[in-house]
Specification:
- With 141 residues, the protein is mainly alpha-helical.
- The protein is built from 5 helices and 2 strands.
- The protein has a two-stranded antiparallel sheet.
- Helix 1 packs across helix 2.
- The longest helix has 26 residues.
- The two termini are 13 Å apart.
Amino acid sequence: MEKENLTPAKFADMLGINRAVISHILNGRNNPSLDVVTKILGDLDYINPEWLINGTGNMYKNGIDPESIRKEPDLFNQREIFPGESKRSAENHEDTSLNNQEVSTQLTENKQVASVSKPEKKITQIIIYYNDNTFERFNPY
């Protein structure tokens, strides 16, 4: 967590686990479960499993430059979940956006619209549900 510049709360949210689990591990009350270790190794795929489990060896896998690792992931630079799908989805979204823009342009030509100031919306969590009744959570911070 220190190397990643993450608080225990952000670390737990990033892994999609309860914050109390991390708190109990840090306080020495509980040891990390296999589920927690698996989530850490899955989300931080550059961490050396031997270092995480046994405390031996280097923290990072061989060939990983610690300086090249993003400290906090952002929405646009995360690895693709479904390779090839995101490009098609982006193209479809772009087409839809253009069509919606054309429609809204036609409507604004015919009548005057009053602008309403709304607070900026930010993404706090993305949840993907699969047909086998499992899900994954993604947090942008």
